[in-house]
Specification:
Length: 461
């Protein structure tokens, strides 16, 4: 990597993922972000390989010699190249659909390091997971156990299972991302846990592996996790007394990250030693293996979403807007969760007038905003970076309003690696079937597609 002795470290990335030059320009590793925008256009997701690797290494280092398995939560960011990086570093995968298992295995993941959660596992999902030989199913209801057992008997393949417990613990997170409260759809309620294990132990094609739990996302301290350990330890110990010895305890993910420079992330170096100490103190099974399922805390701060200002616009009541080419179709979290992402110019614009702006996209929805009331000095044509965008960004992107999915690239030092081929609206209509009802169309399909293709990439600068 380039010498960064004269650069200012960036507050929202670990290690050397993102930084600013002495002139204030934002870089990803050795590459100026504006160079990437010129080459690939915007909206554009940019990931730092060093940032991803550093986060995974932080979890491994925190565990030390303790028996453990880190299973990356695929739902956070599931592009194949990212999953290849995860697999390359020896991590496993936490999957919540057959499609996510497919992605993980196509990326080179070890099926023996795959855990399968999710409340609605289909017969096809279960059959694929069994045939692939995954580590275990995290069972989320008694009915699911019945379905898994039926599929095992049909295929003649044993299923390795854990029970996902709903601990009824308030992790003090936003209601949209709380998964451990009693009224959540996730996990098995406390009164059903022991009976479900006892039932599973009697089924000929079921092999009991462990116990699992996930209390939510953006958890700010270790305290809710420690309460979760106490709940799970009670079950592990009681099951052992009944002759059912578990091999691992899966404590889920959800460690908080910084979306604002003033926020403090829950670092693996703080969380993992506390969990290890609690498990060894409270669980009677010696050296039980500890699983964790980080997603956001691996990928969020390792990426930005680049977007270009299209127009500045005044509204009523002194409301000012910056209309950009990214939208809720690229980053939906602000629209559905009210989530905050720091938005800043890639290159400072000292001559631009500073004003309070709502950063909004072109999608035909009033909720299409990326950030409100931001104090920025920008003009039309300026490039903005939306920070901490790696988790639940591209993974939740859509083609609403017939907008193509954004491009993604990975920066590895001075190398830039495209993670997908560019998509246009032409790709969105290619697989659709025509009814043939319009006998005399105003323009032929070929002519329309040709005109659209000619217009791509046009500039008036």
């Amino acid at each position: 990597m380039a010498d960064r002795n004269l650069t200012r470290p960036d507050e929202l990335s670990q290690g050397l993922s993102f930084y600013r030059s002495p002139e204030g320009e934002l870089f990803c590793e050795d590459i100026p972000l504006r160079d990437l925008a010129r080459r690939f256009g915007t909206p554009l997701y940019v990931y730092s390989r060093a940032g991803i690797a550093e986060r995974l290494e932080a979890y491994e280092k925190a565990f030390g010699e303790e028996p453990h398995q880190v299973c990356y939560a695929v739902k956070a960011a599931s592009t194949r190249g990212i999953l290849e990086l995860v697999a390359r570093q020896g991590a496993g995968f936490d999957c919540v659909s057959g499609g996510e298992i497919l992605r993980a295995l196509e990326a080179g993941g070890d099926p023996k390091k795959v855990v399968f959660s999710g409340v609605g596992k289909s017969v096809a999902d279960i059959a694929f997971a069994l045939r692939a030989g995954i580590k275990c199913f995290n069972i989320e209801s008694p009915a699911e156990l019945d379905r898994i057992h039926a599929v095992t008997e049909r295929l003649g393949i044993e299923a390795h299972v854990s029970v996902r417990v709903n601990p009824n613990i308030d992790a003090h997170v936003d209601a949209h991302v709380a998964t451990g409260l009693g009224d959540s759809k996730f996990g098995v309620k406390l009164t059903e846990v022991i009976p479900l294990y006892e039932k599973a132990a009697k089924l000929p094609m079921i092999r009991i592996e462990g116990i699992s739990c996930h209390i939510g996302s953006q958890v700010e301290s270790a305290e809710p996790y420690l309460r979760m350990v106490t709940v799970l330890a009670g079950f592990v110990n009681e099951l052992a007394r009944r002759g059912i010895v578990l091999h691992h305890i899966d404590l889920g993910g959800g460690a908080g990250v910084a979306y604002h420079p003033d926020e403090k992330p829950l670092e693996p170096s703080e969380l993992i030693p506390a969990l290890i100490k609690a498990v060894r103190r409270e669980v009677s099974v010696p050296d039980i293996e500890i699983f964790v399922e980080p997603g956001r805390s691996v990928i969020a701060q390792a990426a930005v979403l680049l977007t270009t200002v299209q127009y500045l616009k005044s509204g009523l009541f002194e409301r000012q807007f910056a209309i950009v080419d990214a939208s809720m179709t690229e980053l939906v979290r602000p629209a559905i969760y009210g989530s905050y992402h720091l938005i800043e110019p890639v290159v400072p614009h000292p001559k631009a007038q500073r004003q309070i702006l709502n950063i909004v996209g072109p999608v035909c929805e009033s909720t299409d905003f990326l950030g409100n009331d931001r104090n920025l000095a920008i003009e039309a044509g300026d490039l903005l970076a939306i920070r901490t965008a790696g988790a639940y960004g591209m993974a939740m992107a859509s083609t609403y309003n017939s907008r193509p999915l954004p491009m993604e690239v990975l920066v590895d030092g001075s190398r830039v690696i495209p993670l997908r081929r560019p998509q246009t609206a032409l790709d969105l209509t290619r697989d659709e079937e025509t009814l043939g009802l319009v006998k005399n169309p105003g323009m032929s399909e070929e002519a329309v597609r040709s005109l659209f293709a000619q217009s791509l990439g046009m500039s008036i600068e």
